[in-house]
Amino acid sequence: MTNSHGPPVFPKLRSLDPQLVEVQGEHLIYLRDPLRLSDKAVLVPRELAPLLALCDGTRDADGLRTSLALRTGLQLSTARIVELLEGLDGALVFENGSYEQALADALKAYREADHRKPSHADMVYPSDPEALRAKLDEYCAKSPGVNGASTKTLLGVVSPHIDYERGWATYAQLWKRCAGAIEDIELVIILGTDHAGDLGTVTPTRQSYTTPLGFLPTDVDVVDGLANVLGEERAFAEELHHVSEHSIELAAVWLQYFLGGRTCPVVPVLCGSFHHIVTGVAEEADSDTLHATVDYLRSVISNRRTLVIAAGDLAHVGPVFDDPGAIDSLGRTDLSVQDARSIQAIRDGDAERFLSLSRDEQDARKICGLPPIYLALRLMDGVKGELLDYAQCPADVDGGSLVSIAGMALWSDVP
Length: 415
Fold this sequence. Notes:
Blueprint: E1 19-23, E2 26-32, E3 41-45, H1 49-54, H2 61-72, H3 78-90, H4 98-112, H5 129-142, E4 154-159, H6 164-178, E5 187-193, E6 202-204, E7 209-211, E8 214-216, H7 220-230, H8 232-236, H9 247-259, E9 266-271, H10 275-278, H11 288-301, E10 306-311, E11 316-317, H12 329-347, H13 351-360, H14 370-379, E12 383-394, E13 402-412
Parallel strand pairs: 4-10, 5-9, 5-10
Antiparallel strand pairs: 1-2, 2-3, 4-13, 6-9, 7-8, 11-13, 12-13
């Protein structure tokens, strides 16, 4: 229920990524709509964190005041509670508040647009086509790899989605190796990490992606088929995540560059977190969403020359990612060993072993590319991976936090 003249009567906090910040010596909780539907953010005193936890959709302002007093001893007036709720609602952090209309308006605008606009142009790569081509030319010229050919059929790739400044060498070596093998591609399925996605979600879109290099038409028939097996509501519940999510976009730029102006239909699909699976909360076998997705897309690629792109990075470790300590040289070596096991599972085309390695370690490496890579391996029979590059990229100024990435070509095992 929402009060048209204020915040929701029974506010329910959205799933957010709160950040603890310090401003003029005061510790505050920074909250912002992850979809960026609003340019507003809100800072909440840390001692009011219990108030946020109480916003679960079951309490009105009076109920929140009473519960907060009982749990913490804090005595706030109902008027002060309402004032706080108004600020939070203005930042669109309540799923049953102003966010509802903002989401509906944004989704309508997205679906009615001519195409999905690039979200990371001029942040990760130039928006000017010629400048972008020149930059990618430069990356490829500096890369030690060469444009490759193979007697085997290229079925897929594991491509990073890290920014080009840190990951350019991995991108370049991967895509140069695959350049000669994508000339006959009839369809591209891009499975990208949905960093804001709910657990186990699979989210296609009927909208077409564009980059400064051109238009990538979405194969609406394939998307419609996937929506039919998943159910329309489930398939598109988080479609708006495509607006700002970078994983598909950063792989699409390299795909277009090496297609050389040729148009190829694309199926863009975002994949939500597997955290519930790798921490043992749920079993993958229980997910009809994943099974339906795999079964349907396997039927699609059986009839068309298809390239499957898994746009995902590997480990995220260190203080930036909530680990207790910085990663030193020994930690880097240990990470290389652990990543090598996951990479070997990909090379062997073993989706279940790839998944079980993260489950065995309780998601300690926080492999954000786990869902798209796992699903990509499930789609392809007999695939054998070739590692083109592996890198550990700094994720903070001190180098104590790292993101590891790999570029891998996935070939058929039959010449």
